[in-house]
Amino acid sequence: MKKYLLLFCLMALVQVAFAYELPTDSIHLANKDSVIVEFGKSGRIVIIVENKEDFEKLKMMNINQIISTLDLEENENTGELTIVEIKKKDGTSKEIVRVREEGAETEVNIGKMRVYVDESGTNTRVKIETGERKYKDPAFRTFFNTDIGISNYLTPEGSFPTSDNPYAVKGWGSWNIGLNWVAAQRISKGLYWNFGLGFQWYNFKFENRDFQAIRGAGGIDFTQRDDVNGFKSKISASYITAMTLLELDFGKMNDKGRRGLRIAAGPYVGYRLGGQSKYVYRELGGSGRKKEKQNTGLYLNNFRYGVRGEVGVGRVTFFTTYDINELFQEGKGPALNPITFGIVF
Questions:
Q1: Is 4 helix (H, G, I), strand (E, B) or coil?
Q2: How far, in Å, CA of 254 to CA of 190, rounded?
Q3: Residue closest to 297 by CA, chosen among 237, 251, 342
Q4: Please, what is the Cα angle at 100 between 96 and 106, to 5 degrees?
Q5: Could you tell me if 164 and 113 are in contact, meaning their C-beta atoms sit under 8 angstroms apart?
Q6: CA dist., res. 257 & res. 153, Å (int)
Q7: Per-residue pLDDT tens for 290-340?
Q8: Which residues of 191-228 are buried (b: 16+ CB within 10 A; e: fewer)?
Q9: In terms of pLDDT, which residue wins out, 210 or 72?
């Protein structure tokens, strides 16, 4: 099968070659004797011969002999054969025709055209694709990504705290930042199992900046500061987190690459690394900004666990997380479940 595919490559190469500039030192070959084989509407193969003796030898050769003289070398790691390449002036080369054989499957890439032959079944299947060369999806890959989102929390009633609560969160400034290492295993076409390990930082910036979160004797207290002009008040916490997601990529399932819809969902668990409250203010008589920090991690839950969901189209992916357990230890603070919304880079 390979020999016939190579013959097809030689024929199709002529069509592709019109997109490339021929070296100036090959122009004089047009004056030599030549054999021209035409096919299709515009395709042709041109064989240049130097003299009559060479032409007589060519007449005695069959297609198998022509192919054997190519002396092709196979890449043992990928199983690919580079049949034709163009040498550039800077010493680099550009592949034009490449063949890959894997069992009963053979793939031929000619410029932006791809020919796929499957002989695994009773009947041989041939598929020809044109346009941009498709990305071959690896069975396993690893990568890094970054989460940037906004943080809030939900009350037991399933609503966001209202402004009359001292711990009500201000949307702008309540950032959630995550740095993740992800390993993706392809289960089937378009279906993946992802495992991630990373670090997350929560910032809950209070809407009412006159209240300060203070570590009390039996829990966290939200104290109104009327002795200063409050400028910023927040609680922050950091976690190391492990997560696992099942991802369904409709684009790759339908051979559209990254242009399709992607959805993913799965659980996560995290362990708290730190936590504190921060209060920034100015004195009533006028002064520069001053800061007060307290270790409020004593009343934060050491573990967090919840579910994560992702929706993506093209290169854009949105995420959301919801902590099933509460932010504070039971009886040490208000009953609040953190929730985040953001984008993955």
A1: helix
A2: 8
A3: 237
A4: 115
A5: no
A6: 36
A7: 999 988 777 899 999 999 999 999 889 999 999 999 999 999 999 999 999
A8: ebebebebebbbbbbbbbbbbbbebeeebbbbeebeeb
A9: 210
pLDDT in tens, 213-265: 998 888 999 999 988 999 899 999 999 999 999 999 998 888 777 778 999 99
SS3 call for 298:
helix
Q: What letter does residue 3 receive in the DSSP assignment?
A: H
Reduce the DSSP state of residue 253 to 3 states and report it. helix
Q: Could you give the CA distance from residue 233 to residue 144 in angstroms, rounded to a whole number?
A: 32
Name every residue whose Cβ is closer than 8 Å to that of residue 129 and which is 6 or more positions away in sequence.
113, 114, 115, 116
DSSP string, 261-281: EEEEEEEEEEEEEEEEEEEEE
For residue 200, give both structure tokens.
């997350």
Q: Residue 268: what pLDDT?
A: 98
Cα separations in angstroms, 310 against 223, 253, 317? 38, 17, 7
**Residue with structure tokens 């890439």?**
109
Mean pLDDT lowest among 125-129, 146-150, 200-204: 125-129
